[in-house]
Amino acid sequence: MAWVVLVLSGMLEAVWATALSASENFTRKRPTVVFALSLTLSMVGLAWAMTSLPTGTAYAVWVGIGATLTVVWGFFTGAERFTWLRGLLLVLLVGSVVGLKVVS
């Protein structure tokens, strides 16, 4: 169960990072509210998952999921330029996250 909460919290990290950018320095109400809610839920989920998972592993998985999804969202929306090297590095990042789970 902790792994499911951790993955969902990592996904929410991508949501709050994207909403933070869209808030334009907290001047836009909707993205600011999405940022605050997703940040809170992401942190609560991470904290809860850390009660039964090793802190270093939980944090690395959380960051890896959030960073990967944020970059992929950037590719999808055109905010980030896709290159094969960036794609390969994201595959390596995801592989490292999966590897951390496997060896835990």
Task: Give a written overview of the molecule.
- Helices cover 82% and strands 0% of the residues.
- By secondary structure, the chain is mainly α.
- It has one domain.
- Helix 1 packs antiparallel against helix 2, helix 1 crosses helix 3 and helix 3 runs antiparallel to helix 4.
- It starts with a helix and ends with a helix.
- It is a multi-pass membrane protein.
- It is found in: Cell membrane.
- Its main location: membrane.
- It holds the Pfam family Multi_Drug_Res.
Index terms:
single chain; 104 residues; mainly alpha; flat; transmembrane helix; EmrE-like; Small_multidrug_res; Quaternary ammonium compound-resistance protein SugE
List the helices and strands and how they pair.
Elements: H1 2-22, H2 29-49, H3 55-77, H4 84-103
Class of secondary structure makeup: mainly alpha
The number of helical runs is 4
Residues in β-strands, percent? under 5%
Main β-sheet description: none
How many strands? 0
How many domains?
1
Distance between the termini: 14 Å
- Measured as a percent range, the helix fraction is over 70%
**What is the oligomeric state here?**
single chain
N to C succession of SSEs: HHHH
> Mean pLDDT, nearest integer?
94
Flag low-confidence runs. Answer: none
The 3D shape can be described as: flat
Radius of gyration: 14 Å
